[in-house]
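lol ok so funny story. i was supposed to be doing the assay writeup but got distracted and ended up predicting the structure for this chain instead. priorities right. anyway since i did it might as well share w the group, maybe its usefull for someone
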Amino acid sequence: MSCETDTAALLRSAGQKVTPQRLIILSCLRHAGGHVTAGQILEEARRAYPYIDASTVYRTLASARELRLVSETNLGSGDNLFEWLGADRHHHIICRSCGQVGNLDEAHLEVLAKALERETGFLADLEHIAIFGLCRACRARAG
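and the output, tada:
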């Protein structure tokens, strides 16, 4: 199954209308291979569909985020970044000193979510988290 066919099926199963613009936007995101800004998605989408509007990109990203197909994260770079999630749920650790970004497996935060629920009754929504700190190399340089 092509990613466009898969994306269309995901949209339909969520009760969303499948439009050429949505497919182009989500295809750009799927093929980006990582974190991209809405502006980068718009730029790429306009290569295939020159008249696509920025508001269409933002609405599509917001809708896909609500469907949990896409994550929106601020990794400290200023612009919010979007990433296709699919089945790959993960979180990020970001070094405040050098800016290195690493992935953090969801299992680590599942422990936190379970502890919060058990101890406080709070059901945490830990969809896509960015944790800031210092990486090993920067800690070693700091002495």
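The chain has two domains: 1-86, 89-142. Residues 106-120 form the longest helix (15 residues).
back to the writeup now i swear
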